[in-house]
Every structure is written in C-alpha cells, then in structure tokens.
User: What shape does this take?
Amino acid sequence: MARLFVSDVHLDAAAPQATEQFLSFLREQAAAAEALYILGDLFEAWVGDDDEEPGNERVCRALRELTSGGVACFALHGNRDFLLGAGFCARSGCRVLSDPVITQLDGERVLLTHGDALCTDDHPYQELRSMVRDRTWQQRFLALPRAHREQLADEARQGSRRHIARTVPDIMDVNGAAVAAAFRAARVQRIVHGHTHRPGVHRLEIDGTARERIVLGAWYEQGSYLRYERGRYQLCTLPRH
Ligand code: MN
Assistant: This one.
C-alpha cells in the first residue's frame, strides 16, 4: 500500500475550494493509503488548539475519520501552524512528529522536514523562527485571549507578505550548504520537504554519494502530493476545476 506526503495545504476560510479539494483527497487517495504524512503548514493559521474555525474543524473531523479507519497520519509543524499541539492530535487522531524526523520506507531511511530551517539565506525569517519556536514565547502567546492571538496572527501574515514582496526569490529558497549539512547529519540519501512552494525532484551528489531532494508543492492553485510505493516516488498533481 502507498504512503502519501503533502505539505503547504494552507487551509484557509478565504479559500473554500482548496478545503473541499483537500477533504476529497482525504476521502479518496488518503483513505486508500497506508499512511499520510503532512509536512507542515496544513493550516494557513493555527493560533492554538482552541481554534474553532469551522473549516479547520471539518478537516480535523475528516482526519479523525481517516485515522479511525486505520490510516496512520503524521504531521510536522510548519511556520504557520507551529502551535499544533496535543489538542489537535486528540481531535484529528494525527501524531505530531518533531522536525526534522527520519522515517523508514521499506528499509530506506528518509529525512522528512517542513523545509523552512533549510532557508538559511533569509536571515530576518530565521530570527523570527527562533523566536516563535521558543517554548517560553509560545506559552506566553497561548496565554493571551484567542481574539488577541488571532489579531496578532493576522498582523504576522501581513508582515510576512511584505517580507516576501521585498525579498529576492532565491533568498527564500533552500541554501545549498544547509541542504548538504542536513544530508550529512541525518546520513540519508533522500530528503522530502515543502515550504518553498517549488515542487520538483532535485538529484545531487554529496561526498560522492547520489542524493535526492523531493520538494512538495503548495495547494494554492491545485492539489499536490507525493506518492511512495515499493521503492517508487511519484509527485502527483490534482487539477482544481
Ligand atoms: Mn511553510
């Protein structure tokens, strides 16, 4: 049976078509798989496990149905939904894995990561990342009333849009040295990640060994997932009508 990987679904009440498409992906492709790995940014925003956005709640219920049906679901934190916690796991039946994580696919060790940690050329972003991934910062944020957290998340998204608009695109892609370091540290020949919204399969050689970096696509304009079965990896797209 297949294992499926998605990233950067960016589910958002403002984009109901993407939510519908992801829900049908869960009912169809994912329901027929052995496992689903969500490599970060499933949600455009997640201000805490008390999130009550109706679209997000539908997705949690659909994930719960999937996991109850025997499909193992794993989630990594993205830069938008790094506050997914125990409450999300209880609601969805997903297991949150720490980023990066090594999984075994038929005996091959494969590194899974959201991918933002590899974008080391983007210094302002990396500074922000260290701040919001700090446990003390998170506890202080989660102690705020939800309406206040939602307002801060909106402001952060506007700030992010301004940052993206004025940053050279290459700065926001992965850094070659960071990628090489990740391959070496994990001692793997394959990395699967998302975040950059630049789907593709990159073959490279590091220390005389052939390696492969598979980048998952975002779900803004179409569905996108990676399918693994019996040693074969296939990047797939789902057209949106
Ligand atoms: Mn991301």
